[in-house]
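Dear support,

I submitted the protein below through the web form. The confirmation email said the job was done, but the results page showed an empty box. After a refresh the structure appeared. I'm attaching both so you can tell me whether what I see now is the final result or a partial one.
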Amino acid sequence: MSMSAVPPASPPTEDPTTPPPMTTPPRKASVRLQERRGSNLSLLLDMNSLGVEPVCSVSTPKEVWLQLLHTSTRPLTHTLLQQAAMDTNTLNVEYQKIPMNFVSTAELDIPGHTMKDRYKTILPNPESRVILRSPEEEAGPDRYINANYIRGYRGAQRAYIATQGPMVHTVGDFWDMVWQERSSIIVMVTRLKENNEKCELYWPQPTERTTRVKEEDEEDEEGQREEDEEEGETGRFGRFCLRVRDSQEKDGFTVTDMDIQLYSERRPVRHYWFTSWPDHHIPQCTAPLLRLVEEVELYSRSLLSTSFQPITDPVTGPGPIIVHCSAGIGRTGCFIASSIGCQQLRETGQVDILETVCQLRLDRGGMIQTTEQYQFLYSTLAQYSCQLQHNQNQNQQNPEDRVSIQLQNLQLDNTQNHSN
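What the results page shows now:
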Protein backbone atom coordinates (compact mmCIF):
# COMPACT_ATOMS: atom_id res chain seq x y z
CA MET A 1 0.00 0.00 0.00
CA SER A 2 1.36 3.44 -0.95
CA MET A 3 1.90 5.85 1.90
CA SER A 4 0.33 8.71 -0.20
CA ALA A 5 -2.97 6.86 -0.12
CA VAL A 6 -3.25 7.36 3.62
CA PRO A 7 -5.38 10.46 4.43
CA PRO A 8 -4.03 13.19 6.73
CA ALA A 9 -4.43 12.65 10.42
CA SER A 10 -6.95 15.54 10.92
CA PRO A 11 -8.36 16.84 7.62
CA PRO A 12 -10.52 19.92 8.34
CA THR A 13 -13.03 19.22 5.54
CA GLU A 14 -13.45 15.47 6.08
CA ASP A 15 -17.03 14.27 6.35
CA PRO A 16 -17.45 13.03 9.97
CA THR A 17 -19.78 10.26 8.76
CA THR A 18 -17.16 8.75 6.47
CA PRO A 19 -15.99 5.46 7.97
CA PRO A 20 -12.30 5.32 8.83
CA PRO A 21 -9.97 3.21 6.73
CA MET A 22 -9.70 -0.46 7.58
CA THR A 23 -7.39 -1.17 10.51
CA THR A 24 -5.61 -4.40 11.32
CA PRO A 25 -6.49 -5.59 14.86
CA PRO A 26 -8.26 -8.74 13.55
CA ARG A 27 -5.24 -9.53 11.38
CA LYS A 28 -2.89 -9.06 14.33
CA ALA A 29 -4.86 -11.54 16.38
CA SER A 30 -4.65 -14.07 13.55
CA VAL A 31 -0.94 -13.50 13.09
CA ARG A 32 -0.28 -13.97 16.79
CA LEU A 33 -2.11 -17.27 16.70
CA GLN A 34 -0.14 -18.52 13.71
CA GLU A 35 3.18 -17.41 15.13
CA ARG A 36 2.59 -19.09 18.47
CA ARG A 37 4.60 -22.30 18.94
CA GLY A 38 2.49 -25.25 17.99
CA SER A 39 0.06 -23.05 16.05
CA ASN A 40 -2.73 -25.12 14.64
CA LEU A 41 -4.02 -22.81 11.93
CA SER A 42 -0.79 -23.06 9.96
CA LEU A 43 -1.09 -26.83 9.96
CA LEU A 44 -3.76 -26.71 7.25
CA LEU A 45 -1.33 -25.42 4.63
CA ASP A 46 0.07 -28.61 3.10
CA MET A 47 -0.87 -31.63 5.19
CA ASN A 48 -1.75 -33.34 1.91
CA SER A 49 1.95 -34.15 1.58
CA LEU A 50 1.51 -36.46 4.60
CA GLY A 51 -1.48 -38.22 3.09
CA VAL A 52 -4.06 -36.48 5.27
CA GLU A 53 -7.54 -35.74 3.95
CA PRO A 54 -8.34 -31.99 3.75
CA VAL A 55 -10.43 -30.87 6.70
CA CYS A 56 -13.83 -29.47 5.76
CA SER A 57 -16.67 -27.82 7.64
CA VAL A 58 -14.55 -26.96 10.66
CA SER A 59 -15.47 -23.72 12.36
CA THR A 60 -12.83 -23.23 15.05
CA PRO A 61 -9.05 -23.72 15.28
CA LYS A 62 -9.52 -26.19 18.16
CA GLU A 63 -11.63 -28.41 15.94
CA VAL A 64 -9.07 -28.10 13.16
CA TRP A 65 -6.13 -29.36 15.16
CA LEU A 66 -8.14 -32.08 16.87
CA GLN A 67 -9.21 -33.34 13.44
CA LEU A 68 -5.58 -33.37 12.33
CA LEU A 69 -4.52 -35.28 15.43
CA HIS A 70 -7.23 -37.86 14.78
CA THR A 71 -6.46 -38.35 11.07
CA SER A 72 -2.72 -37.76 10.47
CA THR A 73 -0.91 -40.95 9.51
CA ARG A 74 2.28 -42.14 7.81
CA PRO A 75 2.77 -45.92 7.96
CA LEU A 76 6.33 -47.01 7.16
CA THR A 77 7.77 -50.39 6.31
CA HIS A 78 11.24 -51.36 7.53
CA THR A 79 12.86 -49.98 4.37
CA LEU A 80 10.88 -46.74 4.35
CA LEU A 81 11.62 -46.22 8.05
CA GLN A 82 15.37 -46.45 7.42
CA GLN A 83 15.07 -43.86 4.68
CA ALA A 84 12.82 -41.56 6.71
CA ALA A 85 15.17 -41.58 9.71
CA MET A 86 17.95 -40.17 7.53
CA ASP A 87 15.84 -37.34 6.09
CA THR A 88 16.02 -34.84 8.94
CA ASN A 89 14.61 -31.94 6.90
CA THR A 90 11.41 -33.84 6.14
CA LEU A 91 11.14 -34.94 9.76
CA ASN A 92 11.49 -31.35 10.92
CA VAL A 93 8.66 -30.26 8.62
CA GLU A 94 6.54 -33.21 9.70
CA TYR A 95 7.08 -32.44 13.38
CA GLN A 96 6.25 -28.75 13.03
CA LYS A 97 2.87 -29.65 11.51
CA ILE A 98 1.72 -31.77 14.44
CA PRO A 99 -0.60 -29.72 16.71
CA MET A 100 0.74 -29.39 20.24
CA ASN A 101 -2.74 -29.54 21.82
CA PHE A 102 -1.62 -27.72 24.95
CA VAL A 103 -4.25 -27.03 27.59
CA SER A 104 -5.01 -23.49 28.72
CA THR A 105 -5.81 -22.54 32.28
CA ALA A 106 -9.33 -21.64 31.15
CA GLU A 107 -9.91 -25.26 30.08
CA LEU A 108 -8.82 -26.64 33.46
CA ASP A 109 -11.43 -25.42 35.93
CA ILE A 110 -9.85 -26.78 39.10
CA PRO A 111 -9.34 -24.30 41.96
CA GLY A 112 -5.80 -24.26 43.32
CA HIS A 113 -4.28 -26.59 40.73
CA THR A 114 -1.41 -24.20 40.01
CA MET A 115 0.12 -25.00 43.40
CA LYS A 116 0.62 -28.57 42.21
CA ASP A 117 1.92 -27.82 38.70
CA ARG A 118 5.68 -27.90 38.26
CA TYR A 119 5.38 -25.80 35.09
CA LYS A 120 2.44 -23.40 34.81
CA THR A 121 1.99 -23.97 31.06
CA ILE A 122 2.15 -27.79 31.13
CA LEU A 123 -1.30 -28.90 32.24
CA PRO A 124 -3.12 -32.24 31.99
CA ASN A 125 -5.74 -32.67 29.28
CA PRO A 126 -9.11 -32.63 31.10
CA GLU A 127 -10.57 -35.59 29.19
CA SER A 128 -7.84 -38.04 30.18
CA ARG A 129 -6.45 -36.65 33.43
CA VAL A 130 -5.97 -38.86 36.47
CA ILE A 131 -8.29 -37.99 39.35
CA LEU A 132 -7.21 -38.94 42.86
CA ARG A 133 -10.12 -40.35 44.81
CA SER A 134 -10.27 -39.67 48.50
CA PRO A 135 -9.23 -42.64 50.66
CA GLU A 136 -12.12 -44.60 52.09
CA GLU A 137 -10.99 -43.77 55.63
CA GLU A 138 -10.80 -40.03 54.86
CA ALA A 139 -13.99 -38.57 53.44
CA GLY A 140 -13.37 -35.55 51.24
CA PRO A 141 -13.37 -34.20 47.68
CA ASP A 142 -11.38 -35.72 44.84
CA ARG A 143 -7.87 -34.35 44.47
CA TYR A 144 -5.78 -33.05 41.59
CA ILE A 145 -2.56 -34.41 40.14
CA ASN A 146 -0.80 -33.32 36.94
CA ALA A 147 -1.06 -36.67 35.16
CA ASN A 148 -2.86 -38.25 32.21
CA TYR A 149 -3.85 -41.74 31.18
CA ILE A 150 -2.11 -42.62 27.90
CA ARG A 151 -3.28 -45.16 25.35
CA GLY A 152 -0.83 -47.83 24.27
CA TYR A 153 -0.34 -50.21 21.36
CA ARG A 154 -3.48 -50.56 19.26
CA GLY A 155 -5.15 -47.93 21.41
CA ALA A 156 -5.10 -50.02 24.60
CA GLN A 157 -6.78 -47.88 27.23
CA ARG A 158 -4.76 -46.68 30.24
CA ALA A 159 -1.64 -48.58 29.23
CA TYR A 160 0.51 -45.77 30.65
CA ILE A 161 0.27 -42.75 32.89
CA ALA A 162 2.35 -39.72 31.92
CA THR A 163 3.03 -37.31 34.75
CA GLN A 164 5.38 -34.59 35.92
CA GLY A 165 8.26 -35.21 38.30
CA PRO A 166 6.98 -35.06 41.89
CA MET A 167 7.55 -31.87 43.89
CA VAL A 168 8.12 -31.63 47.63
CA HIS A 169 4.42 -31.15 48.33
CA THR A 170 3.16 -33.64 45.70
CA VAL A 171 5.22 -36.72 46.65
CA GLY A 172 2.30 -38.01 48.70
CA ASP A 173 -0.06 -37.47 45.75
CA PHE A 174 2.31 -39.40 43.48
CA TRP A 175 2.29 -42.47 45.73
CA ASP A 176 -1.48 -42.13 46.20
CA MET A 177 -1.73 -42.44 42.41
CA VAL A 178 0.58 -45.48 42.34
CA TRP A 179 -1.57 -47.15 44.99
CA GLN A 180 -4.93 -46.16 43.50
CA GLU A 181 -4.00 -47.33 39.98
CA ARG A 182 -2.28 -50.49 41.27
CA SER A 183 0.78 -49.65 39.19
CA SER A 184 3.73 -52.01 39.52
CA ILE A 185 6.19 -50.19 37.23
CA ILE A 186 7.57 -46.64 37.39
CA VAL A 187 9.88 -45.32 34.67
CA MET A 188 11.81 -42.15 35.56
CA VAL A 189 13.54 -40.40 32.64
CA THR A 190 15.28 -37.48 34.34
CA ARG A 191 17.92 -36.69 36.91
CA LEU A 192 16.90 -35.08 40.18
CA LYS A 193 18.78 -31.91 39.24
CA GLU A 194 20.14 -30.67 35.93
CA ASN A 195 20.43 -26.91 35.52
CA ASN A 196 17.81 -26.68 38.25
CA GLU A 197 15.59 -29.05 40.16
CA LYS A 198 13.80 -31.50 37.87
CA CYS A 199 12.30 -33.91 40.37
CA GLU A 200 12.04 -34.37 44.12
CA LEU A 201 13.55 -37.55 45.58
CA TYR A 202 10.49 -39.69 46.27
CA TRP A 203 11.86 -43.11 47.23
CA PRO A 204 14.49 -44.41 49.71
CA GLN A 205 18.04 -44.32 48.38
CA PRO A 206 20.02 -47.55 48.89
CA THR A 207 23.36 -45.81 48.27
CA GLU A 208 25.50 -48.22 50.28
CA ARG A 209 23.96 -51.37 48.82
CA THR A 210 23.80 -50.49 45.13
CA THR A 211 26.15 -52.57 43.00
CA ARG A 212 26.66 -52.86 39.26
CA VAL A 213 25.21 -56.16 38.13
CA LYS A 214 26.08 -57.91 34.89
CA GLU A 215 23.76 -60.44 33.36
CA GLU A 216 26.16 -63.32 33.93
CA ASP A 217 26.54 -62.46 37.61
CA GLU A 218 22.86 -62.41 38.50
CA GLU A 219 22.66 -66.07 39.55
CA ASP A 220 25.76 -65.80 41.76
CA GLU A 221 24.35 -62.79 43.59
CA GLU A 222 20.82 -64.15 44.00
CA GLY A 223 21.56 -65.45 47.49
CA GLN A 224 23.04 -62.15 48.60
CA ARG A 225 20.02 -60.24 47.29
CA GLU A 226 17.69 -62.49 49.23
CA GLU A 227 19.60 -61.69 52.41
CA ASP A 228 19.46 -57.96 51.66
CA GLU A 229 15.69 -58.05 51.23
CA GLU A 230 15.18 -58.31 54.97
CA GLU A 231 17.30 -55.23 55.68
CA GLY A 232 16.40 -52.83 52.88
CA GLU A 233 16.38 -49.06 53.22
CA THR A 234 13.00 -47.76 54.36
CA GLY A 235 11.25 -44.40 54.42
CA ARG A 236 7.82 -42.85 54.80
CA PHE A 237 6.43 -40.92 51.84
CA GLY A 238 2.95 -39.51 52.28
CA ARG A 239 0.70 -42.21 53.75
CA PHE A 240 3.00 -45.03 52.69
CA CYS A 241 6.01 -46.89 53.99
CA LEU A 242 8.52 -47.78 51.27
CA ARG A 243 11.22 -50.41 51.61
CA VAL A 244 13.95 -51.04 49.05
CA ARG A 245 14.54 -54.75 48.50
CA ASP A 246 17.16 -54.60 45.76
CA SER A 247 18.88 -52.12 43.45
CA GLN A 248 20.92 -52.91 40.34
CA GLU A 249 22.89 -50.53 38.17
CA LYS A 250 22.72 -51.47 34.50
CA ASP A 251 24.07 -49.85 31.37
CA GLY A 252 22.37 -46.45 31.31
CA PHE A 253 19.75 -47.01 34.00
CA THR A 254 19.14 -48.29 37.54
CA VAL A 255 16.52 -50.85 38.52
CA THR A 256 15.18 -50.68 42.09
CA ASP A 257 12.74 -53.18 43.54
CA MET A 258 10.78 -51.92 46.51
CA ASP A 259 7.65 -52.60 48.52
CA ILE A 260 4.94 -50.03 49.12
CA GLN A 261 2.89 -50.64 52.25
CA LEU A 262 -0.31 -49.11 53.60
CA TYR A 263 -1.49 -50.55 56.92
CA SER A 264 -1.25 -54.35 56.55
CA GLU A 265 -1.25 -54.46 52.74
CA ARG A 266 2.04 -54.52 50.87
CA ARG A 267 2.67 -54.47 47.13
CA PRO A 268 5.83 -54.69 44.99
CA VAL A 269 6.92 -51.80 42.75
CA ARG A 270 9.81 -51.81 40.29
CA HIS A 271 11.44 -48.44 39.61
CA TYR A 272 13.52 -47.83 36.45
CA TRP A 273 15.71 -44.73 36.56
CA PHE A 274 17.18 -43.67 33.21
CA THR A 275 19.83 -41.03 33.92
CA SER A 276 21.62 -40.61 30.58
CA TRP A 277 19.09 -38.37 28.85
CA PRO A 278 19.76 -34.61 29.07
CA ASP A 279 16.81 -32.23 29.34
CA HIS A 280 15.54 -30.87 25.98
CA HIS A 281 18.25 -32.87 24.19
CA ILE A 282 18.81 -36.46 23.17
CA PRO A 283 21.05 -39.33 24.32
CA GLN A 284 24.29 -39.98 22.46
CA CYS A 285 23.08 -43.36 21.22
CA THR A 286 19.85 -45.35 20.98
CA ALA A 287 21.04 -48.62 22.57
CA PRO A 288 20.42 -47.79 26.27
CA LEU A 289 16.88 -46.57 25.57
CA LEU A 290 16.10 -49.71 23.55
CA ARG A 291 17.42 -51.88 26.39
CA LEU A 292 15.24 -49.99 28.85
CA VAL A 293 12.15 -50.37 26.64
CA GLU A 294 12.85 -54.09 26.29
CA GLU A 295 13.37 -54.64 30.03
CA VAL A 296 10.21 -52.77 30.98
CA GLU A 297 8.17 -54.69 28.42
CA LEU A 298 9.51 -58.08 29.50
CA TYR A 299 8.84 -57.34 33.16
CA SER A 300 5.37 -56.03 32.36
CA ARG A 301 4.58 -59.24 30.49
CA SER A 302 5.78 -61.32 33.43
CA LEU A 303 3.29 -59.51 35.67
CA LEU A 304 0.42 -60.59 33.44
CA SER A 305 1.11 -64.23 34.25
CA THR A 306 2.05 -63.70 37.92
CA SER A 307 -0.50 -62.06 40.17
CA PHE A 308 0.97 -60.09 43.05
CA GLN A 309 -2.46 -59.11 44.36
CA PRO A 310 -3.95 -60.56 47.56
CA ILE A 311 -6.07 -63.66 46.93
CA THR A 312 -9.16 -61.87 48.25
CA ASP A 313 -8.67 -58.96 45.84
CA PRO A 314 -10.89 -59.14 42.73
CA VAL A 315 -8.53 -56.90 40.71
CA THR A 316 -5.94 -58.84 38.72
CA GLY A 317 -3.10 -57.80 36.47
CA PRO A 318 -0.74 -54.82 36.70
CA GLY A 319 -1.97 -51.24 36.50
CA PRO A 320 -0.70 -48.60 34.06
CA ILE A 321 3.05 -48.11 33.63
CA ILE A 322 3.80 -44.71 35.19
CA VAL A 323 6.32 -42.67 33.19
CA HIS A 324 7.69 -39.28 34.15
CA CYS A 325 10.53 -36.91 33.43
CA SER A 326 10.32 -33.35 34.72
CA ALA A 327 7.38 -31.86 32.82
CA GLY A 328 6.05 -35.24 31.77
CA ILE A 329 5.87 -34.58 28.02
CA GLY A 330 9.31 -34.60 26.33
CA ARG A 331 11.41 -37.56 27.39
CA THR A 332 8.27 -39.21 28.77
CA GLY A 333 6.69 -39.02 25.32
CA CYS A 334 9.83 -40.42 23.68
CA PHE A 335 9.87 -43.46 25.95
CA ILE A 336 6.18 -44.25 25.46
CA ALA A 337 6.31 -43.69 21.70
CA SER A 338 9.42 -45.90 21.44
CA SER A 339 7.67 -48.67 23.36
CA ILE A 340 4.56 -48.48 21.17
CA GLY A 341 6.65 -48.28 17.99
CA CYS A 342 8.70 -51.36 18.91
CA GLN A 343 5.49 -53.33 19.39
CA GLN A 344 4.18 -52.13 16.02
CA LEU A 345 7.35 -53.20 14.22
CA ARG A 346 7.44 -56.57 15.93
CA GLU A 347 3.76 -57.40 15.41
CA THR A 348 2.99 -55.83 12.02
CA GLY A 349 6.31 -55.23 10.27
CA GLN A 350 5.65 -51.50 9.99
CA VAL A 351 5.37 -48.43 12.22
CA ASP A 352 3.38 -45.20 12.16
CA ILE A 353 5.33 -42.70 14.25
CA LEU A 354 3.27 -39.72 13.11
CA GLU A 355 0.01 -41.37 14.12
CA THR A 356 1.50 -42.52 17.43
CA VAL A 357 2.68 -39.03 18.41
CA CYS A 358 -0.71 -37.59 17.45
CA GLN A 359 -2.39 -40.18 19.67
CA LEU A 360 -0.08 -39.23 22.55
CA ARG A 361 -0.87 -35.53 22.16
CA LEU A 362 -4.59 -36.22 22.18
CA ASP A 363 -4.06 -37.76 25.61
CA ARG A 364 -1.50 -35.23 26.93
CA GLY A 365 -0.57 -32.03 25.13
CA GLY A 366 2.99 -31.41 23.98
CA MET A 367 4.23 -35.01 24.04
CA ILE A 368 7.62 -35.16 22.22
CA GLN A 369 8.82 -31.69 23.06
CA THR A 370 11.43 -30.86 20.40
CA THR A 371 12.35 -31.58 16.80
CA GLU A 372 15.54 -33.30 18.01
CA GLN A 373 13.52 -35.68 20.18
CA TYR A 374 11.26 -36.46 17.22
CA GLN A 375 14.26 -37.26 15.03
CA PHE A 376 15.76 -39.36 17.82
CA LEU A 377 12.51 -41.31 18.04
CA TYR A 378 12.81 -42.14 14.33
CA SER A 379 16.47 -43.14 14.79
CA THR A 380 15.63 -45.36 17.77
CA LEU A 381 12.91 -47.24 15.93
CA ALA A 382 15.05 -47.50 12.79
CA GLN A 383 17.76 -49.14 14.91
CA TYR A 384 15.21 -51.53 16.40
CA SER A 385 13.98 -52.31 12.88
CA CYS A 386 17.52 -53.28 11.85
CA GLN A 387 17.80 -55.60 14.85
CA LEU A 388 14.49 -57.26 14.01
CA GLN A 389 15.45 -57.82 10.39
CA HIS A 390 18.83 -59.20 11.39
CA ASN A 391 17.24 -61.67 13.78
CA GLN A 392 14.60 -62.67 11.25
CA ASN A 393 17.22 -63.32 8.58
CA GLN A 394 19.18 -65.53 10.95
CA ASN A 395 16.08 -67.48 11.90
CA GLN A 396 15.20 -68.05 8.26
CA GLN A 397 18.68 -69.31 7.43
CA ASN A 398 18.82 -71.64 10.46
CA PRO A 399 15.25 -72.48 11.49
CA GLU A 400 16.44 -75.41 13.63
CA ASP A 401 19.11 -73.46 15.49
CA ARG A 402 17.17 -70.61 17.07
CA VAL A 403 18.35 -71.43 20.57
CA SER A 404 21.96 -71.39 19.39
CA ILE A 405 21.43 -68.02 17.72
CA GLN A 406 19.95 -66.56 20.89
CA LEU A 407 22.95 -67.76 22.88
CA GLN A 408 25.30 -66.18 20.36
CA ASN A 409 23.44 -62.88 20.64
CA LEU A 410 23.69 -63.03 24.43
CA GLN A 411 27.42 -63.64 24.20
CA LEU A 412 27.76 -60.71 21.80
CA ASP A 413 25.81 -58.44 24.17
CA ASN A 414 27.97 -59.52 27.10
CA THR A 415 31.15 -58.84 25.13
CA GLN A 416 29.92 -55.36 24.28
CA ASN A 417 29.02 -54.70 27.91
CA HIS A 418 32.52 -55.73 29.01
CA SER A 419 34.08 -53.42 26.44
CA ASN A 420 31.97 -50.54 27.76
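Response: this is the final, complete result; the empty box was a page-load delay. The two ends are 66 Å apart (CA to CA).
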